[in-house]
Amino acid sequence: MINPKRLSLPLSRESVQALKAGDLVELSGEIVMTAGIPTHHRIIDYLRQGKPLPIDMTGGSLLHLGGLNQEGPDGKASVAYLNPTTSTRFNRFMPEIIRGLDLRVTGGKGGLDAECAAAMRDTGCVYLSFLGGGCTLLSNALREVTTVAWPDLLIHYRLVKVRVEGLGPATVGIDAHGNSLYGVGEARAQERLPSILKQLEEDRAAANSLVQRDL
After folding, report:
1. Which residues make Cβ contacts (< 8 Å) with residue 74, sequence separation at least 6?
2. Helix-then-strand count for the chain, H and E
3. According to the CATH classification, is domain 5-179 in 3.40.50.720?
4. Cα separation of 102 and 96, whole Å?
5. Is 190 helix (H, G, I), strand (E, B) or coil?
6. 3-class DSSP state for residue 49?
7. Predicted confidence (pLDDT) per residue in 39-71, tens digit
8. Hey, where are the domains in the chain?
9. Tens-digit pLDDT profile for residues 118-171
10. In whole angstroms, what is the distance from residue 125 CA to residue 104 CA?
11. Which of 61, 62, 172, 195 is least surrounded by CB atoms within 10 angstroms?
């Protein structure tokens, strides 16, 4: 069994650049998370207007994790669970956000595209792939909610900073040098596609031949 690398946030650019695509990691420290497209719109609006964000993420993290944040009787906020959402929904926003915030860590599930990977290479940022459906495992890392911003948004869309301990395991899906497990997988799939389509056509022709023979 491979033991994950234990990383303490915030991460320096040097420590991020030492990570390689395929590395297994766990995070401890404070992360910022959201699962909302409107949230990404608003972050970009703030960046373009030069307005300070309610949570400072400069040189930090923005993870695509959903979580039910709620306020207890004592007025203290809590998050009931963590669950990764699909990062590809945010492809069109992330290059500007990564560069604008000089991010070190982003992540979720499903990866990001080549334009995002280029932005990550520019700033020194990694994409972490969290286990889809791994809500129970990931939620064990929750320790404390430190900030909930933009409460006018839907619960899963709010910008939330939480303290975690041993969040993971997560795989470095895209490293700070632009190496992407998703890009490699797509290239291999494209290479195999012609032979797969040819085999399907041959199987279809054979099946049709059997049908015609039995008529």
Report:
1. none
2. 6, 10
3. no
4. 10
5. helix
6. helix
7. 999 999 999 999 999 999 999 999 999 887 777
8. 5-179
9. 999 999 999 999 988 888 889 999 999 999 999 999 888 999 999 999 999 999
10. 4
11. 195
